[in-house]
Amino acid sequence: MTLNAQLLLGSRAASGEAAPIYGINPATNERLEPGYAGASPAQVAEACALADAAFEPYRHGSLAARAAFLDAIAEQILSLGNTLIERAMLETGLPRARLEGERARTVGQLRLFAEVVRTGDWQGVRIDPAQPDRSPLPRADLRLQYIPLGPVAVFGASNFPLAFSVAGGDTASALAAGCPVVVKAHSAHPGTSELVGRAVAAAARETEMPEGVFSLTYGSGSIVGQALVADPRIKAVGFTGSQAGGRALLAAAQARPEPIPVYAEMSSINPMLLLPTALANRTETLASGFVGSLQLGAGQFCTNPGLILGLDSPRLDRFAELVTQILTQAEAQTMLTPGIHKAYEEGVNSLSRAEGIKSLATGLGSTDPNRCQPQLFRTTALHFLANEPLQQEVFGACALIVSCQDEDELVMVITALEGQLTATVHMDEPDSELARKLLPLLERKAGRVLFNGFPTGVEVCHAMVHGGPWPATSDSRTTSVGSAAIQRFLRPVCYQDCPPELLPEALQVGRY
Amino acid sequence: MTLNAQLLLGSRAASGEAAPIYGINPATNERLEPGYAGASPAQVAEACALADAAFEPYRHGSLAARAAFLDAIAEQILSLGNTLIERAMLETGLPRARLEGERARTVGQLRLFAEVVRTGDWQGVRIDPAQPDRSPLPRADLRLQYIPLGPVAVFGASNFPLAFSVAGGDTASALAAGCPVVVKAHSAHPGTSELVGRAVAAAARETEMPEGVFSLTYGSGSIVGQALVADPRIKAVGFTGSQAGGRALLAAAQARPEPIPVYAEMSSINPMLLLPTALANRTETLASGFVGSLQLGAGQFCTNPGLILGLDSPRLDRFAELVTQILTQAEAQTMLTPGIHKAYEEGVNSLSRAEGIKSLATGLGSTDPNRCQPQLFRTTALHFLANEPLQQEVFGACALIVSCQDEDELVMVITALEGQLTATVHMDEPDSELARKLLPLLERKAGRVLFNGFPTGVEVCHAMVHGGPWPATSDSRTTSVGSAAIQRFLRPVCYQDCPPELLPEALQVGRY
């Protein structure tokens, strides 16, 4: 399959009218052909107009047809075969096994949303039947269902070229909700985006979806991205990326005559608590498990464990020593882009220079470009509390151990944390009392609290929450992974005394 | 019961430290004693600190205890008896029957939320059991529940001194969700607010709630209101009022280091469509029913029908004539405040001067202050489409008939509408085809679509949606009336492999 570097404006492929962007092989810094000419403002507007035109037929199509579309996307992605994996490897520096796993997850979540669509439960039907004889006033017949918001702008993420990109979780959940989608591909993997975009377009054709149900654009965030969010036909935004990027989209969305919701998943350092008994009983397995999680994908996971909290003790020192031993021997891994690598180096340098911080370990160096040398730092609760920048995410395999003199300090550190995607507690039975005291604090800080595990690895299921208070996300009331993500793109409508012949299908009595 | 004009900082009554505000009897322009000294910034901060301290014990108390608190508030409000009604009459100019009805609604919604709390359904439990034998990777045990956001700031509304004020829908739903509440009383009815606030405080004492579960402050929106929204301990805002007020709170909430959700219910002109057959069959009853809805509470309802849409025809002319006849003889009614009356007069004057608009009816005048003379205007679809300010809400008993030459014009007018709380369709069976064509448009514009009724009169039940796209509200994904309003103050948390002894009660298997 030859890459044609064209935008998809609905079902029509078109050459972009703005300057081209190129993928870069981060392992070599080689520029990858072809160049992807960016969408012009008129082309962004055309994609939005098509999405708007598709909205009515798409949302009113049968749920079975919508589910079939999602299943067909999954099939089309699989049928890209090795072409997809190889292009993604070139563009991201991620290894084959990781990308094959990510493809399985992407396909799995499309199928999960197909199932969810079929059940209809997400329509949240509520019926208060009429009470014509109620006194002093009769009650009307009142029926509620959730309907889709309208066309959704989705921004591909750099770190999940499949699962959070063109046909990733945001697209799958928006399409499931009945919202047409206009994607802005991430500039780091345009070829991967084109392949997946063509798979979505083929699935749309195959299942006879309205033309504008899906469009794919390329270009810069500050031009194409801003134009997309400002377009009046766009009614919600899904984004995974940096805090600066998320804030810019949020500001653009709020500045519109009609502000719209932005679901931005931004930054998290994912605290991991080592409670005393667990730490004593399992120092070695905790150390090796932690390094495995930290190093996964060169640390480029939203849920990467960047902060270790423990009580000052010889066991914590031992844990730090063990991690240091492993990390010092760890190979440097290719990061996703030169920009991400540069930001990592800057973040590490900035941490190194912070007051009261000690560098414990630096992984093996490399003469190859864009390699992430894992880093481990240590500081005290007092320094951590006094120095807010220590909370800033360093995207990559960098972690900070904060040792607390006592439980009070531990409580203070947790209380001072910003919002997080995850918080992890390692505990054994004798730690229960302390864990019970900490859990209410952790609930308030994180969208997912996990026990005796590692946060990298986000199960796509019904009970997952990949979300959390600001700045982990821009909207703590939702999740961007799992079936509950569909709710982001819905709003309730009440129908009062609606004649039976006009009543939406989901609200017809006896249907559920 | 003597009014003491004190703030409630948790359970402690305190004299405000800022300049006093006074209620005004709008029927006479008389100043009402006592003066309510406003809260100082330090007092606002104290209320927020108390709310924050109350959050953990309050949210972890039993659901039965929380429900008992809500029921006790209802009882305490009832036990204020006539004192409450008379003070509210003085402060608002609303008649006794209306206020007694509103009290019943207020008490009813507190009791509804007590019931909702007891069921626990709002916790939205989802459980994905562990699959230890799954290949290639086992699945962890994942359980989701919704937990409260934290302390909520509630702003009392001028037009519902009971049902949308100190113990109104926002307070009831936030308390039901497990969020402590800090109220800023509306300056138009401080005495009513004090009485209800003391009832809430008495209920909190009686049911042994934590001290800071409820606080009541007075003062200006630009000082006390802004301080409240800016306080880092406040995690969400409930507001019903003007678009300018809602926008100011939204801007303040977005400017915080940690932005928070604002649920502002702002403005709506509530289009009412008169389809041809219904109009022909029921011209008289439609005219009298419409005037009744328009005049209710001097038109000071969020759901007041301010826009009539119909197809140009002798029947529409007849409808306009009939409404004109009734309105021309209609008595002027006292509005809630001098400020609201002034804004009404200005809005009416501005409409009168708009191009292509015709004044059809002005109600009877009055020499008494702050009286709302009902007004009826008429224009064409073309003028309405060309003149966006015609869409602006004139809060009060003012309506505009827009006549459309054909169905296409009607579709264009509906398409051009901003977001609305309600849209009403009057139709008979032969109108079904047209109604079927319009319903998808109306769904996109309004939170509630009603048929053959009038929008004033919002049932407090499970299926109600009092919400809608911007600028009807700042967040179309929710409702501020009905049991679904509790969801505004919740966020999901996932617990992964949580040891049984730590698992939150709602997530223990077999409980639901």
Model description:
The structure is a homodimer of 512-residue chains. Chain A is an alpha/beta fold and 512 residues long. Helix content of chain A is 39%, strand content 20%. Chain A has 15 helices and 21 strands. Chain A has a 7-stranded mixed β-sheet, sandwiched between helices. Chain A has a 5-stranded parallel β-sheet with strand order 9-8-7-10-11, with helices on both faces. In chain A, helix 13 (381-386) links the parallel strand 17 (375-380) and strand 18 (398-404). The longest helix of chain A has 24 residues, at 96-119. The model of chain A has no long low-confidence stretch (mean pLDDT 97). At the A-B interface, strand 5, strand 6, helix 15, strand 20 and strand 21 of A face strand 5, strand 6, helix 15, strand 20 and strand 21 of B. Strand 21 (490-496) of chain A pairs parallel with strand 20 of chain B, so a sheet runs across the interface.
Comma- or semicolon-separated keywords:
homodimer, 5-stranded parallel β-sheet, 512 residues, 7-stranded mixed β-sheet, alpha/beta, globular, 21 strands, 15 helices, 20% strand
Rg of chain A, rounded, reads 24 Å
Beta percentage of chain A is: 15-25%
How many β-strand stretches of chain A?
Answer: 21
Largest sheet of chain A at a glance?
7 strands, mixed
Tell me the distance between the termini of chain A.
45 Å
Continuous helix count of chain A = 15
Low-confidence stretches of chain A: none
Look at the helices and sheets of chain A and give the structural class: alpha/beta
Estimated helix fraction of chain A:
25-40%
Globally, the shape of chain A reads globular
As an assembly, this protein is: homodimer
Overall mean pLDDT of chain A:
97
Which strand order do you get reading across the main beta sheet of chain A? 15-17-18-13-12-19-20
Measured by residues with Cβ under 8 Å of the partner chain's Cβ, the largest interface is: A-B, 67 and 67 residues
